[in-house]
């Protein structure tokens, strides 16, 4: 119309560009605020529980300058093309055609962008689902030991005044164990060289006798423990016996193997009574216990050999306590009991076994939370985009809708028309997003646990979530279209 009454094309282009740049700058300002607020929320989400994440998320001058430049560039780039297209028209057909036809043509690019948003949102939702399910799989995995009801006291024994190989240390450890175990609410207590975590030692083990193979060395992890350790940790006995008070320094050197080590050292034969060399000393196997996790919940079964504290004098500062009841109430009493037996063994820190296991999942939690955050953000943006394009389409087609209803179309038919258009856009977005997610899944397969990147349940759940929220976003403009008054719509300009 403006071109028809003599307005210059470049004048119209400048006006349209000014509107586009103004909207982009307003969006950029809103984006800076949203980024600051979202960054604070993200930081709080990432720092929940045992994980502590330190990030500098306050925007500085360079960030604000970059945001301003990006907003200007976006306004010019995405405002110039529509402005050129809008002013490059044949006036006679343009004045004759209705708003519905013009709106349908102009909405093609918007619909394409919405389809892209749906596909990208689905991709991120599938990734979030995979990482969340991986975290759940790791959280409920059987570690082979008690997670709940076990407190771990870390004692500083290095500066106690005793030498590392002082034979009195074994008696002190046993005295502390008995004193702590006698407390109300404590079931048992046990010292050990180490517990679940990355601090493990490895040694070369040479099996002796007829082991079904030639002279060989087997690498194995090792741990020095007190007799009550298996009871405290809930590690089940399979063969033979575990340590007792008779396994002293003067008694024959003995060890207990886990199932994996028993098979590796003595394949095809019973390990009970057999010997192996640890260093230059022969050690006899007296029992076999079940496998457990030792370093990470992701790890595959590994060799583990347990040695008795009384036969390997040294500093062992890990006291595991099996409790019944409130651990916070028992903690002060256990501290006092330790100090009563040996005041030179100060308690450095206290953890629960569940906390220690959870701490090893910090990377998985971080990835799951980040992917969930950006998946939800992408879902919101896709729904907003879909709502906007449908609302614009309904407004442009108000006259057409009025004619349809005047000719007998029901509100339900109009509602179905708008929702049908939504379903079509959604179907195209899903058809693009699902193959992309399946193709890119191999890039994250190494981060998953007991789950395929092509897991059908996760893909279906993400697609269903996307569909439900997309249809909810479409419901409001569809309902508005269904409530159009035919007489008012026919007078709509």
Tell me about this structure.
This protein has 493 residues and is an alpha+beta fold. It has 3 domains: 1-96, no CATH class; 98-141 and 361-493, no CATH class; 157-345, no CATH class. The protein is built from 14 helices and 11 strands. It has helices at residues 9-46, 61-87, 91-96, 99-139, 168-181, 229-233, 259-265, 327-341, 353-359, 362-396, 398-406, 411-440, 456-482, 486-490, and strands at 150-155, 186-192, 201-207, 218-225, 237-240, 254-258, 275-278, 281-289, 304-308, 318-323, 347-352. The strands form 2 sheets. Strands 3-4-9-6-8-7 form a 6-stranded mixed beta barrel. Strands 2-10-1-11 form a 4-stranded antiparallel β-sheet. Helix 10 packs parallel to helix 13. The longest helix is centred in the first third of the chain and has 41 residues, at 99-139. It is elongated, with a radius of gyration of 35 Å.
Key attributes of the depicted protein:
493 residues, alpha+beta, 3 domains, 6-stranded mixed barrel, 54% helix
Per-chain topology:
Layout lengths: L8 H38 L14 H27 L3 H6 L2 H41 L10 E6 L12 H14 L4 E7 L8 E7 L10 E8 L3 H5 L3 E4 L13 E5 H7 L9 E4 L2 E9 L14 E5 L9 E6 L3 H15 L5 E6 H7 L2 H35 L1 H9 L4 H30 L15 H27 L3 H5 L3
Parallel strand pairs: 4-9, 6-8
Antiparallel strand pairs: 1-10, 1-11, 2-10, 3-4, 3-7, 5-8, 6-9, 7-8
Helix pairs in contact: 1-2, 4-10, 4-12, 4-13, 5-8, 10-13, 12-13
């Amino acid at each position: 119309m403006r071109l028809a009454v003599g307005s210059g094309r470049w004048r119209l282009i400048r006006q349209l560009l000014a509107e586009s740049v103004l909207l982009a700058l307003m969006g950029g300002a809103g984006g800076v605020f949203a980024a600051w607020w979202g960054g604070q929320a993200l930081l709080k989400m990432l720092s929940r529980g045992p994980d502590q994440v330190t990030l500098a998320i306050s925007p500085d001058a360079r960030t604000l300058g970059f945001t301003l430049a990006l907003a200007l560039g976006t306004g010019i780039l995405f405002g110039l093309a529509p402005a050129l297209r809008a002013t490059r028209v044949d006036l006679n057909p343009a004045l004759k055609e209705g708003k519905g036809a013009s709106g349908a043509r102009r909405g093609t690019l918007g619909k394409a962008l919405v389809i892209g948003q749906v596909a990208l949102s689905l991709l991120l939702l599938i990734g979030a689902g995979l990482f969340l399910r991986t975290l759940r799989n790791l959280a409920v995995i059987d570690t082979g030991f008690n997670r709940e009801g076990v407190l771990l006291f870390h004692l500083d024994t290095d500066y106690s005044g005793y030498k590392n190989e002082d034979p009195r240390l074994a008696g002190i450890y046993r005295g502390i164990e008995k004193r702590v175990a006698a407390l109300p609410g404590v079931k048992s207590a046990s010292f050990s060289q180490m517990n679940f975590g990355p601090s493990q030692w490895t040694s070369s083990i040479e099996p002796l006798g007829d082991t079904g193979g030639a002279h060989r060395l087997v690498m194995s992890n090792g741990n020095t423990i007190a007799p009550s350790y298996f009871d405290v940790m809930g590690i089940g006995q399979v063969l033979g016996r575990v340590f007792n008070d008779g396994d002293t320094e003067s008694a024959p050197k003995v060890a207990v193997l886990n199932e994996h080590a028993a098979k590796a050292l003595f394949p095809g034969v019973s390990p009970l009574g057999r010997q192996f060399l640890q260093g230059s000393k022969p050690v006899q196997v007296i029992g076999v216990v079940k496998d457990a996790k030792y370093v990470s919940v992701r790890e595959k079964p590994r060799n583990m050999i347990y040695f008795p504290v009384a036969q390997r004098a040294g500093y062992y500062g890990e006291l595991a306590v099996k409790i019944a009841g409130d651990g916070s109430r028992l903690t002060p009493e256990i501290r006092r009991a330790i100090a009563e037996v040996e005041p030179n063994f100060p308690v450095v820190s206290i953890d629960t076994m569940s906390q220690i296991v959870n701490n090893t999942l910090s990377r998985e939690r971080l990835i799951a939370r980040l992917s969930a955050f950006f998946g939800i953000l992408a879902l919101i943006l896709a729904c907003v985009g879909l709502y906007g394009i449908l609302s614009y389409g309904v407004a442009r087609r108000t006259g057409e809708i009025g004619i349809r209803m005047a000719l007998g179309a029901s509100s339900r038919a109009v509602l179905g028309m708008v929702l049908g258009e939504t379903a079509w856009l959604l179907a195209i977005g899903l058809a693009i997003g699902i193959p992309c997610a399946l193709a890119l899944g191999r890039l994250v397969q190494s981060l998953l646990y007991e789950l395929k990147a092509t897991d059908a349940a996760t893909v279906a759940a993400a697609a269903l979530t996307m569909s439900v929220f997309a249809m909810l976003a479409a419901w409001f403009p569809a309902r508005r279209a269904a409530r159009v008054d035919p007489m008012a719509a026919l007078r709509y300009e």
